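Per reviewer request, we include the raw input and output of the structure prediction for the construct analysed in the revised manuscript.
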Amino acid sequence: MSMTDTTSPTGAADPHGDGYPFHITKAEERQLRLQGERATPSPVVGQATSFDEYTRQLMIPPAVMDLVRKAAELQLSTWEVEAMRKQLAPAEHDGSVGLLRRILEEKHQDDHSHPPYIRVACTGRGNYDDMATDFGYLDVLPHRGDYGSPVVLEIWPAQHYSPIHSHGDTTGIVFCLAGQLDVMLYNRLDWNATKLGLITLTPGQCAWLSKDTYAVHRVYCPLDGGDGTTGPGFMNNTDAFGASFHVYLNPDQTLPQPHDGKSHNRDAFDYITEDTPHKPAVFPTYSDLSWNVLRRVLASTELT
């Protein structure tokens, strides 16, 4: 990987305050966006429009390009996006909320370290599938979620973000389906890691990662989240969101790699806690919902 590390570490002083989630000034943001656009290999996969772009994308691993080609035509329909908005919207005047907002509130109560987002397993079951039956959406369902799904839909409410995390030895893609997502790339899993570049994804654009390249990042939805400032304990009050489709292949599902004695597959990812002293922790990759349940709920959502 050929990138110039010219920015200050994550823990550097920010004259504008804490500046969640990236802790950077406007000048640093401009520099990081330039670094993201010039990075080699390119962190974003797309149709090359110049010789430079072609060269930077030529260095992307074949396994990644195969995933990108298969995902190229993916999209959420208009009704699916609008139904997600309805399910994410804050409480109505009568106090009623949708399933996705209920899950966000549940996760927010359990963990104030960062604003919650929703993982939807495209295979297997989700931890909150039973909420679809508890509140009258669907019939009886299995009550326990699975972990390690190779294909995940992630729903990012506006102004919500992930901790800095690593995808270990997996190879994968992050394909934007709705809204807008900012992705900060880091050189290692550490609170004081050097920021390599900042990229923005809009529908149809795809970022990627592998064991050796772009494995550590943070994802953030910069859309209007309503009142308040994002950060630990924040919960938005709008229906705006970004959505992304993720695929994670374990090492034995791509090209053969030397065994190094580690187990960094998609069953669990490492991350850095948001609260001081910003120590490493492990996230077992349980999903919140299954796509089978979510799509049935979306189909039953009344759109007006």
